[in-house]
Design goal:
Elements lengths: L1 E12 L3 E17 L10 E20 L14 E26 L2 E15 L9 E2 L3 E2 L5 E11 L12 E2 L5 E2 L1
Antiparallel strand pairs: 1-2, 2-3, 3-4, 4-5, 5-8, 6-7, 9-10
Length: 174
């Protein structure tokens, strides 16, 4: 089982527009550890699947009108301040990553993510160019991401491993 929760407040300043996105996200899913540890190691090489959901607001701070033939120069930025509230998005995410144990139950690692939007509530005259938890949309349904993490593993139970004695002829003794 894997879960992520977060809150973002990001201002994007592009060549044509400046906007601020504020919101929260939740991701839930699972990871499969494909690495067989030896001795007392607890490292992880995993692949996983997540479902993400985000609720957010966007504010268009300023924009520039595109002029293909700027004979009289570039048009200055126009201040807007228009707000778009109550926006939501959801997506499916495939995750591949590595985590290494540094202390008891504390891991550091990184992951690569491939996202696909499932739903995206857009305002009437603006597009969701950035979605908290998903990243930039680039006028499409797919996204890619790279994360680095410091995580804490919450031990719910611990399996006690009993040593198995082996006799001189190689048979296991119980």
């Amino acid at each position: 089982m894997a879960a992520e929760i977060g809150n973002e407040n990001k201002t994007t300043d592009d060549s044509r527009l400046n906007f601020t996105t504020k919101g929260s996200y939740l991701k839930a899913g699972f990871d499969y550890n494909a690495y067989e540890n030896w001795l007392d190691m607890e490292n992880i090489i995993s692949i996983g699947l997540r479902y993400g959901f985000s609720t957010f607001n966007q504010e268009l701070n300023s924009y520039k009108i595109y002029n293909a033939t700027p004979y009289f120069g570039e048009v200055p930025a126009i201040a807007s301040g228009e707000k778009f509230n109550g926006l939501t998005a959801s997506w499916i995410e495939v995750v591949a990553g590595i985590k290494a144990k540094v202390f008891d139950n504390v891991f550091v690692g990184f992951s690569l993510r491939l996202n696909r939007l499932v739903s995206n509530k857009k305002p009437g005259n603006f597009d969701n160019l950035y979605i908290p938890g998903f990243n930039r949309t680039y006028d499409g349904d797919f996204g890619v991401g790279f994360n680095y993490t410091v995580s804490y593993f919450i031990p719910l139970y611990k399996k006690k491993v009993e040593p198995v004695e082996v006799s001189k002829n190689g048979a296991k003794e119980e």
